[in-house]
Design brief:
The chain is of the alpha/beta class. It contains six helices and nine strands, in the order βββααβαβββαββαα. A hairpin with a 2-residue loop joins strand 8 and strand 9 (170-171). The chain starts with a strand and ends with a helix.
C-alpha cells in the first residue's frame, strides 16, 4: 500500500493499492504506516510566490503547514515529495539543492536526496521542471531518471506559467490549471516505484 498525500479527488491515485488523501481528508493528519507519494500545494512556494504576495498579500510559504506535514511524512514513513523546480520550500527547510543536469543530490546532515527532472520527458504537455525529495530509499536503490535540461524551444509545446506565453520568439498556448497540475501517468509510476523502494 502507498499513501498518496495532497492529491485531487478522483485522480489517478484513487485506485486499488493506494490510500489517497485529498483536501477533504486533510493529508496533514496522515499518521502512517505506509510509504508516501506527496504532492503538497505549491502556490505559496513557487517562483511567482513573491509576486503573489506583493500583489494580493498572500504570504510566501503560508500554506497552512501542508509542505511541512508532507516533509514530515516522507521523513517518518519514507517515500517521495514532488514540487515545482526552484521551490522556495527547499531553502526554507534546508533541503539538498538538486543539480539541473541530473542525478541525486544529498547533504551531510540531511536524511534524504533531491533531484531535478522534467515531466515533459514523461508525457506532460509542458516541460514542467520538478524537484523531488526522497527519504527511506538507500542510495544504491535510487532509480536513474530521464535526466537533463532541454531548452524550452525544443521540448515545450505548452506553457504552464501565467506570466507570459512566448519563449525564444515562439508563442506557446497556456495550459488550463487542471492540465497544468496533472501528473502524467508515466511520471506517477516513477514516483510510486520510488515509494516502493523504501526500506524501513
Amino acid at each position: 500500500m502507498i499513501a498518496a498525500l495532497f492529491v485531487a479527488r478522483g485522480g489517478a491515485y484513487f485506485a486499488p493499492g493506494f490510500d489517497a488523501w485529498d483536501e477533504a481528508r486533510d493529508a496533514r493528519l496522515y499518521a502512517g504506516p505506509h510509504p508516501v507519494v506527496a504532492h503538497p500545494p505549491c502556490a505559496r512556494w513557487c517562483r511567482l510566490a513573491g509576486l503573489v504576495e506583493k500583489r494580493w498579500g498572500h504570504k510566501r510559504g503560508d500554506d497552512g503547514g501542508c509542505f511541512a506535514a508532507a516533509l514530515a511524512s516522507v521523513r517518518r514513513w519514507g517515500g517521495v515529495l514532488e514540487h515545482p523546480a526552484w521551490s522556495d520550500a527547499w531553502a526554507h527547510f534546508g533541503l539538498p539543492q538538486p543539480s539541473r543536469s541530473g542525478g541525486w543530490t544529498g547533504a551531510l546532515f540531511d536524511p534524504g536526496f533531491s533531484a531535478h527532472v522534467e515531466q515533459g520527458r514523461y508525457g506532460h504537455a509542458a516541460k514542467k521542471a520538478t524537484w523531488l525529495y526522497v527519504c527511506g530509499v538507500p542510495p544504491e536503490s535510487l532509480p536513474e531518471l530521464r535526466w537533463g535540461h532541454e531548452p524550452d524551444a525544443e521540448t515545450t509545446r505548452y506553457w504552464v506559467s501565467w506570466c507570459g506565453n512566448a519563449t525564444h520568439g515562439q508563442e506557446r498556448p497556456r495550459l488550463g490549471k487542471k492540465a497544468a497540475i496533472a501528473t502524467p501517468p508515466e511520471f506517477k509510476d516513477v514516483l510510486v516505484d520510488i515509494a516502493r523502494r523504501v526500506k524501513r
